[in-house]
Design a protein that fits this description.
The complex is a heterodimer of chains A (465) and B (308). With 465 residues, chain A is of the alpha/beta class. Chain A has three domains: 224 residues, FAD/NAD(P)-binding domain, CATH 3.50.50; 145 residues, D-Amino Acid Oxidase, Chain A, domain 2, CATH 3.30.9.10; 72 residues, no CATH class. Chain A is 31% helix and 23% strand. In chain A, the strands form six sheets. Chain A has a six-stranded mixed β-sheet, with helices on both faces. In chain A, strands 15, 17, 18, 19 and 20 form a five-stranded antiparallel β-sheet that branches. In chain A, a hairpin with a 2-residue loop joins β12 and β13. Chain A is globular and about 65 Å long. Chain B has two domains: 173 residues, FAD/NAD(P)-binding domain (3-Layer(bba) Sandwich); 125 residues, FAD/NAD(P)-binding domain (3-Layer(bba) Sandwich). Chain B is 23% helix and 31% strand. Classes of the chains: A alpha/beta (465), B alpha/beta (308). Bound molecules: flavin-adenine dinucleotide (2 copies).
């Protein structure tokens, strides 16, 4: 039963976050026997859905680390991937602002650090340049750095695109499939998951916050993940024209700090906080967290705080007991654990995928590329781009692209229908939101929630709540 | 982009926009275009099925949909051109708006433009209520559409946040949907609606009225399981599976802001003079886009004061 061919795959990737999706996609280029499994009802539905969505240059990474290398490589790869697959990227650049003498003195070190990471485009800017770029910052900025290549990206389309593209090339995706037990006899792993079993000769553990648990199941106890919660506030689209760049604080030992960032969907985001928590499911926002952000935000830009809040949320970084990414190939165990991909995994995902495949190639577990992935154009979700509602050609082909259902986010009926019938159909309203932006806007359903539910009911084979 | 012209362009087909269009058509018989982004004009009353409309303007006591129909028919009969499923999404000049619809993009220029885009209730996130993000959260607006327009499942036990007029509308809607209201939570010391409503509705619907109480947290995985409120520094947990955020209005000021009209920082409405003209010449604002919030008949009576 366990070894029936139906359940057998040459490779099983556990965890369909952005990292697992990237790895599975890369392996699928070489193998037509790959399974990607996740406990949730969608890809990219855990940490990968709740981040600040910045394409990091890696200027502030610790030089010489694997993280620094993979972020630098991943940046180039994801930038190109996004271009090829119509995923929105806005080339905003970032400004790192020093608000006191100590921070000002730190700028040289940061520049040096950037150079050590082989990022050479950053430069110092004066206080008056800062206000030319960002007139809505509070007074008091003493000077800063311009990091022209920090960009913002549509974070959700990335995982969906990786997985969808790979599915077209033969990857098998299993959702709602939590891995419970792993046993090994001879050279075969038997994986017991909710509702299903798998057999495989090789496991890649990309289980994010639970990569330590899966590592345990594989028989190791080196890795320990300690979730670090980041709360964020998203301000109304009307705030967007107040800011042009990502605005960064001078980083401290405690982390990157609270930033102000335009989002690809046309909002402005403030956050994240950084608080260690015990429970890997504790994605609640808190009174203290939101208050901290508002106070912090008010120090940076009181003009931002005047704006309406559209959304608040929290994400959990997979911080760990390791000082670097933990990517461990255990040959004798036929497994690779990819864990502790804390706050840069969106950017580095494709590089991690390549890194893992290189390890497999070195062991001759993968040899020749068998299929070239076909580009998989995603629906245009970036606010600065030609969205369906203002795409004359699209509307004339199909008038439903001109029929707006969600007014705040200007999502049209046909976009919703397309998403409901896509390669990985959403199984919840939030899954539909990540594919279209529906119901994520300022009214939070006051106008369209009910209409959207009706469309879902009419267009899905399974019932979505 | 296709282009067209009108003498008067009204954005928003709620009671305010419709009544004004009809009124102007009677007076000037000019070329008037009215834009409505929904597939049916009528605005909020379209989904407010309980009676309570038309008292001061039509001297009748009628339901929302009947009231909405009355003004849609009146405007149509008088020859107002109503473009439904048409959203005005941005300005392309001082007196020109870009619109989109299933017919494509259209730029409409007009001698005078009147914004009548209404107001909505602030929902959970805009109120910065911490906690988890479960299903079962509504505003009165989304609750009414769920209940009356599409007859979808709501829940079984509800807490209403706020006690404005509209909160009692939520109470009736929940009852209609078969949902028991267990509590109404008000941050002030008394109801923000008519005092006379409190006792009879408490008796009829059997809910607890918490005054001086602040909602501090929402709990529940998947579905709401309870809300936590704070009263006199005491935390009280109220089990429920549905929360309705009522009132706490914010004008739908997107076009006003995009057009750089001067905005009142307190109410977030565009500033207008006694003739409802905004800081931009020939651009006007009416109805619930102008705070404070008003009932529909008050909005309609107000539109009669404009002189174009
Ligand atoms: C607040 C915040 C801001 C961030 N900002 C940025 C940024 O600006 N730029 C950037 O590049 N990165 C950023 N990051 C980091 C980035 O989001 C993460 O590094 C990345 O999402 C990690 O992806 P992952 O696939 O490793 O993990 P996840 O997305 O968590 O995926 C792991 C998957 O494994 C599944 N899983 C777990 N256990 C099991 C099991 N037993 N069986 C089956 N499946 C299982 C989970 O359901 C999950 O889907 C940020 C993170 C946070 C929290
Ligand atoms: C739950 C509830 C119960 C109520 N009960 C009562 C009651 O019993 N009695 C009473 O008198 N009043 C009641 N009211 C108040 C009443 O509904 C409002 O006073 C009235 O709807 C205001 O009319 P309006 O035209 O200003 O705005 P709205 O009715 O909000 O109409 C605005 C219209 O503009 C459209 N629009 C907005 N932006 C654009 C754009 N960019 N392009 C195109 N179209 C756009 C919208 O789709 C909408 O149709 C209630 C309100 C609510 C929410």
């Amino acid at each position: 039963m366990l070894n029936s061919t139906e359940n057998y795959f040459d490779f099983v990737v556990i965890g369909a976050g952005v990292v697992g999706c990237a790895i599975a996609r890369e392996i699928t280029k070489y193998s037509n026997s790959v399974a990607l499994i996740d406990r949730l009802d969608d890809v990219g539905a855990d940490t990968s859905k709740a981040n600040t969505a910045i394409l990091h240059t890696g200027f502030d990474m610790k030089p010489g680390t694997l993280e620094s290398r993979l972020v630098r490589e991943g940046y180039e790869l994801l930038y190109q991937y996004a271009k090829d697959n119509q995923i929105s990227v806005e080339e905003t650049g970032a400004i790192l602002v020093a608000w006191n003498e100590t921070e000002l003195a730190e700028l040289d070190n940061i520049l040096e650090n950037a150079k050590a990471n082989n990022y050479l485009q950053a430069r110092k800017i004066t206080s008056s340049e800062i206000y030319e770029f960002e007139p809505n910052l509070n007074p008091g900025a003493l000077g800063g750095l311009l990091i022209p290549n920090e960009y913002i990206i549509d974070p959700w389309s990335v995982s969906i695109s990786f997985a969808s593209q790979a599915i077209k090339a033969g990857l098998k995706l299993f959702l709602n499939t939590k891995v419970l037990e792993i046993n090994r006899d001879e050279n075969t792993f038997n994986i017991k998951a909710e509702n299903r079993t798998f057999a495989t000769k090789f496991i890649i553990n990309a289980a994010g916050l639970y990569s330590d648990k899966i590592d345990d199941l594989l028989g190791f106890d080196e890795l320990e993940i300690t979730p670090r919660r980041g709360e964020l506030i998203v301000f109304d689209k009307l705030a967007r024209k107040k800011f042009n760049h990502i605005i960064l604080p001078v980083p401290t030992k405690m982390g990157k700090g609270v930033l102000i960032s335009p989002t690809i969907f046309g909002n402005v985001m403030l956050g994240p906080t950084a608080v260690d928590v015990k429970d890997k499911e504790d994605k609640r926002t808190t009174q203290e967290g939101l208050e901290t952000l508002l106070n912090k935000g008010n120090l940076l830009s009181s003009s931002l705080i005047e704006e309406e809040v559209t959304s608040t949320y929290a994400g959990l970084r997979a911080a760990s007991n390791q000082s670097d990414y933990f990517i461990k190939y255990r040959k004798e165990n036929s497994s690779i654990t990819v864990g502790g991909i804390r706050s840069t995994g969106l950017t580095s995902s494709l590089a991690i995928g390549k890194y893992v495949v290189d390890l497999l190639k070195q062991s001759n577990l993968l040899t020749n590329e068998i299929n070239n992935m076909v580009n998989f154009p995603m629906p245009v979700l970036g606010e600065a781009f030609n969205r369906a509602y203002k795409d004359e050609a699209k509307i004339s082909q199909n008038p439903s692209y001109g029929e707006i259902i969600c007014h705040c986010e200007r999502v049209t009926k046909q976009e919703l229908i397309d998403a409901l019938n896509s390669t990985i159909p959403p199984q919840s309203l939030s899954g539909l939101s990540r594919r279209t932006r529906v119901c994520l806007g300022r009214c939070q359903g006051f106008y369209c929630l009910s209409e959207v539910r009706k469309l879902i009911a009419e267009n899905s084979k399974e019932v979505i709540s | 982009m296709k282009k067209t012209k009108a003498e008067i362009l009204i954005v928003g087909g709620g009671p305010s926009g419709l009544a004004l269009a009809a009124e102007l058509k009677k007076k000037y018989s000019s070329n008037i275009i009215l834009l409505e982004r929904e597939s049916i004009a009528g605005g909020i009353p379209r989904h407010t099925f309980h009676p309570g409309y038309g008292i001061r303007d039509l001297h009748k006591f009628m339901s929302g949909p009947k009231y909405a129909n009355y003004y849609v028919n009146l405007a149509k009969k008088l020859g107002v051109e109503i473009l439904t499923s048409t959203t005005a999404f941005d300005w392309v000049g001082a007196n020109t708006l870009a619109t989109t619809s299933p017919n494509g993009l259209l730029e409409i220029s007009a001698d005078k433009i009147i914004l009548a885009t209404g107001a909505r209730e602030r929902a959970r996130n805009s109120r910065l209520i911490p906690g988890s993000r479960p299903e079962g959260l509504f505003t009165t607006g989304s609750l009414q559409q769920t209940t009356y327009l599409n007859h979808q499942y709501v829940g079984s036990k509800a807490v209403i946040i706020g006690s404005e007029h509209v909160s009692y509308s939520a109470l009736m809607t929940l009852h209609h949907a078969g949902v028991k209201t267990v509590a109404m939570v008000e941050s002030n010391h008394k109801t923000q609606s008519f005092g006379a409503l409190v006792l009879p509705t408490k008796i009829r619907y059997g809910y607890k009225f918490f005054t001086n109480s602040k909602l501090v947290r929402i709990e529940g995985k998947g579905r709401v399981s309870s809300v936590v409120i704070e009263r006199n520094q005491e935390l009280i947990s109220i089990p429920c599976d549905t929360v309705v955020f009522t009132g706490n209005w914010i004008p739908d000021n997107e076009l006003a802001r995009r057009g750089n009209l001067e905005i009142d920082l307190e109410t977030k409405s565009p500033m207008v003079n006694s003739n409802f003209e905004t800081s931009q010449k020939n651009i006007y604002a009416i109805g619930n886009l102008l705070m404070p919030i008003k009932s529909a008949d008050q909005c309609v009576l107000e539109t009669r004061k404009i002189d174009l």
